[in-house]
Amino acid sequence: MPRDLALQCWLDRGILGFPGRVLTVVKKPLGYFHPVGISDLTLGPCEPEDLIDGIIFAANYLGSTQLLSERNPSKNIRMMQAQEAVSRVKRMQKAAKIKKKANSEGDAQTLTEVDLFISTQRIKVLNADTQETMMDHALRTISYIADIGNIVVLMARRRMPRSASQDCIETTPGAQEGKKQYKMICHVFESEDAQLIAQSIGQAFSVAYQEFLRANGINPEDLSQKEYSDIINTQEMYNDDLIHFSNSENCKELQLEKHKGEILGVVVVESGWGSILPTVILANMMNGGPAARSGKLSIGDQIMSINGTSLVGLPLATCQGIIKGLKNQTQVKLNIVSCPPVTTVLIKRPDLKYQLGFSVQNGIICSLMRGGIAERGGVRVGHRIIEINGQSVVATAHEKIVQALSNSVGEIHMKTMPAAMFRLLTGQETPLYI
């Protein structure tokens, strides 16, 4: 694979099975706070080979909470967020203990002993007694790591519209009015190896990226991360969902009438990883069904909520289940954002030496480097490429699509749509209406 199109991104690897052996490391007592990103170093407390296989730490899981945060808070704000998360979790623990004591349930057990598994692919949390998986995060989903004494805080974020999140999540310390907000999910652990855990997770990012480059025939020493970062910082987000979604002309609240026992008559698909507001898209409507009958919906519309239940961030199967649950209702209230079925992408690539940061297989985008020029250009995982620089690639062979992308420089214009929607619209799949 050529260097400039090393597209099988390490940020989007598959699920890792739990390894059959436990590896040990030597603790180095250094404090650590790591804003997760790509580094050109693999130095750290662990041997890189150990992180590839995976290492395990003993810890106590204290709980989780959610905050709202700006996109790039300062280091001080990040530490305040971590401290706030710890305070909230401890308050929840105290309340649970008091409640159990009041119910004469004896001493409350507020700590759960866990095995914290860290590798270059995943972070898994397993119950130490039953080995049941409690959490399973791809490494790329961890945004920040902080250690505070014997406490470790793992933070993962997903940008949300402030209005959709504010009702149920408290604003984080330091957040300013009028700025875009992210929902920050914070998991809190207690361990005597807190500092080492934080260091090891940070090192795992570096090792994973180095391994990805080598696997694609790229010498990591040939890449300057600072130079690439400088290019990224000069580029604005293109096709920003939040701008489109915040325009009141695009947002609609609809009331649909239907008969009891009648399905809504729609097919929905995922908006694609890389969407700032992940939800489901209307991909097809059944002729004569309630959705089509209403005349209020169009292919490409993104459904934000149904009867007051938000679909933003929910798995596709969950959203489909909510829609199926409407069968016995006679009225359905939808909040939608009118969107065209085709997504416009604009990637700005100043030189061939900068990798695009996404992978494509048979015209379908299958992975995306978080924070790269492709994400800023509006590329979404799971989308089918329809057009590149004004030329249709619907019937173009995979090798020619790769060649067209790898040789493109300057402004790269693309049009894409969810692959599932493309297959439905072109008759490759039979719609299953719900």
Automatic annotation (TrEMBL):
GO cellular component: cytoplasm; dendritic spine; plasma membrane
Pfam families the UniProt entry points to: PDZ, PID
Keyword flag Phosphoprotein: yes
InterPro entries: APP-Binding, PDZ, PDZ_sf, PH-like_dom_sf, PTB/PI_dom
Domain PID: 53-240
PROSITE patterns: PDZ, PID
GO terms for biological process, alphabetical: chemical synaptic transmission
CDD domains associated with the record: PDZ1_APBA1_3-like (cd06720), PDZ2_APBA1_3-like (cd06793), PTB_X11 (cd01208)
Boundaries of every PDZ domain copy: 253-338, 344-420
Sorted UniProt keywords: Phosphoprotein, Repeat, Transport
GO MF annotations in UniProt: amyloid-beta binding
Name this protein carries in UniProt: Amyloid-beta A4 protein-binding family A member 2
